[in-house]
Amino acid sequence: xxxxxxxxxxxxxxxxxxxxxxxxxxxxxxxxxxxxxxxxxxxxxxxxxxxxxxxxxxxxxxxxxxxxxxxxxxxxxxxxxxxxxxxxxxxxxxxxxxxxxxxxxxxxxxxxxxxxxxxxxxxxxxxxxxxxxxxxxxxxxxxxxxxxxxxxxxxxxxxxxxxxxxxxxxxxxxxxxxxxxxxxxxxxxxxxxxxxxxxxxxxxxxxxxxxxxxxxxxxxxxxxxxxxxxxxxxxxxxxxxxxxxxxxxxxxxxxxxxxxxxxxxxxxxxxxxxxxxxxxxxxxxxxxxxxxxxxxxxxxxxxxxxxxxxxxxxxxxxxxxxxxxxxxxxxxxxxxxxxxxxxxxxxxxxxxxxxxxxxxxxxxxxxxxxxxxxxxxxxxxxxxxxxxxxxxxxxxxxxxxxxxxxxxxxxxxxxxxxxxxxxxxxxxxxxxxxxxxxxxxxxxxxxxxxxxxxxxxxxxxxxxxxxxxxxxxxxxx
Length: 477
Hints:
Shape: rod-shaped
Largest sheet: 5 strands, antiparallel
Number of strands: 16
Structural class: alpha+beta
Number of helices: 14
Radius of gyration: 36 Å
């Protein structure tokens, strides 16, 4: 890099300065300098923004990080093109770092101003324009924050509606089962009284109680039957009941089949009851026993489901937990999948391919859950409600890698480089804000020092998140 003298007339040939007065051009030459830069990098994205560059002759390449890759956004040799610390006039209200990277591809000459000097000149020469630019910049920031907040609230509302629906189903099932259970217990007491007042001797009664306990055990071990198998067994039991003269036997058969009870077992019951007149009462008493056990299983399953949903909601929201802590990525993914269960639907098959040795990582858990939510929601929409959603984890050197994969049509090559840009969306007007992937990018890259990229072809789209196991420094919110 070498410096040379600055000539006002040469600056006037650049479109950025062609309307300036002679005194203004002379001041630029006093404050700035001409630098000749050899091919190679000039500055990198994220470094402190110290200089404002204007190309006089040569060629440059401007690039920006996207999906973990350095994406070229401009390659030009146009005289007057500027880059660098162009936000210096905003002062300490914004981070004064380079918003992208620049390199030159051939020996090039630039007019260079130090950032502080550039800011002072803009404030002094263009006060009205400065106010307009500030209003535009901060207005866009405010709009973006409002839309981000709306997107979060919409996502929260959708999740809350889904959770309410998911909780309502098992809760309603438990209420129905409890009501039915009360009715069955009442009938069981009546049948027990009838049996006890009949002709059964003490030994037969004890044997019948033993069969009752055996029925309870069989309910717990009942095999899963296909519809055809269940229908065949119901026919067999229905015929047995009919042969024994038991009224409404065809209605009793499904209950006995669901409990895993068959004809040989009913023969044992028949052998226990000497008086044929008492057989129907004994069968119905055992039916109430089986129904009671099945109803208690339904209540247990429903309440367990409610507990699972509540725990998933707590895990998802990270209530009562430190914002930044060591987390199990698998727990976060599981809780998000449960919370999104209703949105995923029955026509999408969820496949979990969790790596066996994925270590805990330090992270902002609630914000990572927002990333999984955005990526899974996008995958579900890409598949239009039908396909295979694969959630895969592994370890790649010192990073944990999480892949959200879908079997949708894929992300077209022509827009792949733009999908992480704020407000960019392929959805219809009103259906998306274009901030989901931008928010995810900032959470993963800026807050967790990780990277986020997409690999896509028709039938196989993968959003790949890589998070450090041991970040060099803890990011602050």
